[in-house]
Specification:
By secondary structure, the chain is an alpha+beta fold. The protein is built from 4 helices and 7 strands, in the order H-H-H-E-E-E-E-E-E-E-H. The protein has a 7-stranded antiparallel beta sheet, sandwiched between helices. The chain starts with a helix and ends in a 24-residue tail after the last helix.
Length: 162
């Protein structure tokens, strides 16, 4: 068994996805990632800006982010996003503890801003998924590379016109 297949069910459990639901798009996920790339998170999600666009399934590995769209009437799967994590920029996430979930936003290589809201089971799962996102996008110690410091500008004195 390869590394991806051996870690897939653990990643689905981390995202509180039942095994039958996680197994349905497994063949598409396998075609998008390398066999030696371990799965970190599998979650069901929706797009906040398009509520009737169908259900989405999100896979996060150590190197890739894959999102598959499930169409409503026929329940067919279509690849929506397949990106290397290095090619994503401005990745942010926001926790929602009232309705357990996390909204993830990222800008893809083509400049399109993608937003997904992961539906999670409870508050403990929200914190666990937040830690997985932090490790994947900020590094193992949770430290981002600091942005270069901007030089402070001297205040411009106000001139009174009479």
């Amino acid at each position: 068994m390869d590394v991806f297949s051996s870690t897939f069910h653990t990643a689905a459990e981390a995202g509180s996805v039942p095994f039958p639901t996680a197994n349905r798009p497994l063949s598409i996920f396998q075609s998008c990632v390398d066999q030696d790339d371990p799965a970190v998170l599998v979650a069901r999600c929706a797009r906040p800006g398009a509520p009737f666009s169908g259900n989405y399934h999100l896979l996060l590995t150590e190197r890739r982010l894959v999102v598959i769209r499930e169409t409503r009437p026929l329940h067919r799967f279509r690849l929506h996003l397949n990106a290397n994590l290095r090619h994503l920029c401005n990745v942010t996430w926001r926790l929602d503890l009232a309705k357990p979930g996390i909204e993830v936003s990222a800008t893809a290589m083509d400049g399109v801003r993608e937003r997904f809201r992961m539906r999670l089971s409870d508050e403990a799962v929200v914190w666990r998924v937040e830690e997985l996102l932090r490790q994947s996008f900020e590094g193992p110690r949770g430290r981002r590379v600091p942005a270069p410091a901007r030089a402070k500008r001297a205040p411009v004195p106000a001139v009174a016109l009479a």
